[in-house]
Design goal:
There is one protein chain. The chain has about 160 residues and is an all-alpha fold. It has one domain. It is built from seven helices and no strands.
Length: about 160
């Protein structure tokens, strides 16, 4: 059973891991590697609330008021949810003595959500199949989610030993 302190640790771990992922995305952008705009995520969520799940191209869908803010909020909320998933799998004790491989494994496994749910719903196809470079896009997604897993671990260590 998770205590209020454990819940706080999970929330902080999710925020920390998502921030590590964001630093990675900034690094990728600096190198000229295209990354997803969280405004498009917000646009997708906004349309989802209006009853539309799938789009031929989310970029062509009508903009949603506040979509960038909504996208960023969703990005961090999902990071917290994935941190919660890790603790559900590993148990609350993992928060007090984090181990690297479970965090990396869960982080890497979370790539299933964008590849098989978000990308198809936004018009990119399953595993980026409708994009010009599907294999490259999938590899980038796997790397980004593995970095998120590393962020889960690093955040848990900082929280556990702070």
């Amino acid at each position: 059973m998770a205590t209020l302190e454990d819940v706080a640790r999970i929330v902080l771990m999710g925020i920390g891991a998502t921030a590590v992922m964001d630093v990675w995305l900034i690094f990728m952008k600096v190198l000229g590697v295209p990354t997803l705009s969280f405004a498009l995520v917000g646009r997708w969520i906004g349309h989802l609330w209006r009853g539309k799940f799938a789009h031929a191209s989310i970029g062509q869908a009508s903009p949603i008021r506040g979509e960038l803010t909504l996208g960023w909020i969703a990005h961090y909320a999902v990071g917290i949810a994935f941190a919660w998933l890790l603790v559900c799998i590993q148990g609350v004790d993992w928060l007090h003595q984090p181990i690297l491989m479970p965090a990396i494994s869960v982080g890497a496994a979370t790539v299933a959500v964008p590849l098989f749910v978000i990308q198809p719903a936004m018009g990119a196809g399953f595993a980026s199949s409708k994009t010009p470079t599907p294999a490259k896009n999938c590899l980038r997604s796997v790397m980004t989610h593995t970095v998120f897993g590393l962020g889960l671990y690093l955040s848990a260590v900082l929280i556990a030993y702070a």
